[in-house]
Amino acid sequence: MEMRCLVSISFCLGAAALLNRSDFAVTKVGSEVSEVSPNLQVSVSVGSGDPAVALSEILMASLRAMGVTGTIIVVGILAARWGIVGKNASSVLSAVSANLAIPALLFSRIIYCDQCNQGRHCPECAPFSRTIASSWILMVLPLIVVGFGLALGKAAAVVTRAPAGFARGTVCAIAFGSSTSLPIVLLSVVTETLNNVGSKAMGKMDPLLHLPVYLILYPVLMFSIGNWLLRDPDAAEDCESLVPVEERRRSSLRSALRHALEPPVLASIAGLLVGLTPVRALLVDVYDQDNNAWLEWLYNGIYELGNAAVPLNLLILGCSLSKGADFEALPPRLGVVIVLCKLVLMPLIMTAVIYGLIRLVNTKDTSLWLVALLVTCMPTANNVAVMAQTGGQSKEGMATAIFLQYMVAPVSVSLWLAGFLFLLSSDGFLPTA
C-alpha cells in the first residue's frame, strides 16, 4: 500500500514537472513590472481591429486554457480507472496537497520576485506594499464574492429543499470557487495567447501579478467559514453537553481557531508578513535579481513544491470525477440548481457588482479587473469536497456537484472568459479615462 502511494505521488510530481515545462508555465505567477502606476490604463487591443476577429481570438485563448486544464483532469480520471491512484493513495495526495503543496504555492507566489537579471532587461521587483496599494480592491473582493455566494447558496438550499445531509454543503458548493489551480492555468494561457496574437498592451502587466493579493484573504474565508459551516452540529452538541459551560467556550474558541488557521491560511498570512518586511530580501533577491539572496535556496525549494499544487489538485479532481455522478447522494434538481447558481448566476451578479466597483475605484488596470471577474465564474473548489468529508456532510453529494459543474465548465468558463475580455476591451465597461 505504501509503495502504491509512493508511485502515485511520483506520478503526480512527474505531471507537475511536465506542466512546468509547458509554455504557459505557472512560474509566471506574481511576476512584476517596473514603474507600474496604480492608475495605469491597459486595454486588450487584440491583433486585428475587427471586433469579430478579436472575439474569435479571445474565445480560442479561453478554449485553449480550458483544454490544458481538461487534459490534466482526464489524466487523473484515467489514473483512477486504471488503478494507478487508488482510494488510499488519493487520500494521501489530498493531504499532501492541502498541507504542503497549496501552502507552498500561496506563500511563494505572494513574495515572488522574478530572478531575470541574466544580461538582459529585467523589470524591477516592486515592493509588495506597492502591489497591494495598486490592487487593494482585490483584498476586499473576497468578502463580496463569498457574501453573495453564501446568500445565493442559502437561497438555493431553501428553494430546492436540499437534503439535511447536504443543506450546508449546498451553501459551500456555491460560495467557494476554485481560486488557485484553474485561475492560474487560465490566466497563464490566456495572457500568453493574447500576447502571441498581438495584444501588446495586455502583456505590459501580467494578470497573475494581482492574483496573490486576492489569495491573501480568500483562503482564510474559505477554510474558516467553510469548515464552520460543514462541521456536524449534532456531534458537537453531544460532546459539548458533557462538559462545563466554561470549558465548552474555551473548546469552541480553540475549534474556531483550528478551523480558521488551516495550513493554506497560515501560509497566506506568513507570505503577507514576509512580503511587507525586510525578511523578503533574505528569501528572494529583490535588488539585482540574480538569484543570490542568502536564503534563496530555501525559497526555491518552497517554490518548486508549490509548482506541484496545480497539477496535483487537477489530478485529484480527476480521481474524484472518475466515479461519475451519484444522484442518490445529490438529487438531480439540486445538482442543476447548483450548476446554474455557481456557473451562471454568480458571475452574472458579480459582473454587475464589478461594473459598479470600476466606477468607484481609481484604477483602470485591465489585468486587475480580469482577475476580479475570472474568480467569480470558477467551479467549486476541490478543497470543499475534503472539508465536506471531514465535517460530516455528504462527500458523494459534493463530488457529484463538482462533477456536474465540470461537465459544463469547459463551455461556461470559456464563454465567460471570452466575455470578460471583450467587456474589458470596451470603453462602456472599462473607461480608459
Structure explained in plain terms:
- Residues 1-17 form the signal peptide.
- Keywords: Membrane, Signal, Transmembrane, Transmembrane helix.
- The chain crosses the membrane at residues 58-80, 92-112, 132-153, 165-191, 211-230, 260-282, 302-322, 334-355, 367-388, 400-424.
- The longest helix is centred in the N-terminal third of the chain and has 31 residues, at 51-81.
- The protein is mostly helical.
- Helices cover 69% and strands 0% of the residues.
- α5 (137-159) runs parallel beside α9 (211-230).
- The protein has one domain (2-24, 40-117, 135-424): Na+/H+ antiporter like fold.
- It has helices spanning 2-21, 51-81, 87-110, 128-135, 137-159, 167-175, 181-196, 200-203, 211-230, 233-240, 245-260, 263-275, 279-283, 296-307, 309-321, 332-360, 366-374, 382-391, 395-424.
N-to-C series of helices and strands: HHHHHHHHHHHHHHHHHHH
Q: What are the low-pLDDT stretches, counting only 5+ consecutive residues below 50?
A: 1-50, 200-204
In helices, the fraction of residues equals 55-70%
From the spread of the alpha carbons, the general shape counts as: globular
CATH fold annotation: Na+/H+ antiporter like fold
Structural class: mainly alpha
Strand count, sense and barrel status of the largest sheet are: none
Q: Give the overall average pLDDT.
A: 78
Kindly provide the radius of gyration, computed on alpha-carbon positions and rounded to a whole number of angstroms: 21 Å
For the record, what CATH class applies? Mainly Alpha
Tally of separate domains: 1
- Per DSSP E runs of 2 or more residues, the count of β-strands stands at 0
What's the tally of helices? 19
